[in-house]
Amino acid sequence: MTSTRRTALIAVMLLPSLLLLAVFLFLPLLRGIELSFYTWNGVAPVMHRAWLDNYARVWSDPAFLKALSRTVIWWAMHLGLAVGGGLVLAALISEIRWRRAQTLFRGLVFVPHIMSLAVVGVIWSQLYHPTIGLLNGFLDAIGLDKLAEPWLGSTGLALPAVGVASAWQAYGFYLVIFLAAIQAVDPALHEAAAIDGAGPWQRFRNITVPSLHNAISLVVVLAFINALKGFGTVWSMTEGGPDRSTELVAVYAYRQAFSLGDIGAASAAGLSIAVIAVVITVGFNRWRDRAAVGR
């Protein structure tokens, strides 16, 4: 097959995927960029050009800045709970020598990730229920009823509570990535370290973690992107409340568009966070590549 025919065949095979990307990704993105420069309520027949006024209004809005700070906190929780939990569980599962048991545990821990965010929100809302929830019921059963709280009704506890639910839904995805990377580590390294007297923790810290450099870099970027998209779990559990204490940037943009009818501001907020995501991701990848060269 000539190179021309090979190129044509590749183009034909990629065409359906490219069309889907164009219809469901690129065109909406371009439309969102366009709307961010207009004042429009979503139903009026005429849009008024606003240029950069929408961006100025969004970035001068204290509610947006608070939502941005909560998004950073949300990402930190996601990184610590979902990514950290996934790494620890992956290391533990990798130590199981019985193949069928390892496969069983790997499948069980991945179950939360295949649940819809709405289902996860309902499950955890019931767990956090102040009167019939299992969490407060458990605290009461062990004599710690003074620690019982209205978890989703407290402005100080709602964001961490929803963050735990989101991490529970996501950790299985990161676990699979870490587990694949751990299984690719040369077993001879662990065997040699064990012969030298290294314990499980020493082998994990000095052999496993350094060998997961690329996997950790990938997961950090994915966790950051997922944190910026944190909408489904928050909306299904608190709708951004109480008193907007769980309002992330995604929830802020949704409220601007569908509650306040300010499509321009919603688009500006969404595009702003998208630009931030691209800049941070590109910067992180460049730093990672330079660090890899330095090693």
Automatic annotation (TrEMBL):
Domain of life: Bacteria
Subcellular localization(s) per the UniProt record: Cell membrane
Keyword Transport annotated: yes
Residues that span the membrane, as ranges: 72-92, 104-124, 157-182, 212-235, 263-285
Assigned GO CC terms: plasma membrane
Pfam families to which the protein is assigned, alphabetical: BPD_transp_1
Membrane topology of this protein: Multi-pass membrane protein
Keyword line: Cell membrane, Membrane, Transmembrane, Transmembrane helix, Transport
Keyword Transport: yes
Biological processes annotated in GO: transmembrane transport
Domain ABC transmembrane type-1 residue range list: 68-284
Family: Belongs to the binding-protein-dependent transport system permease family.
Name of the protein: Sugar ABC transporter permease
Lineage: Bacteria, Bacillati, Actinomycetota, Actinomycetes, Propionibacteriales
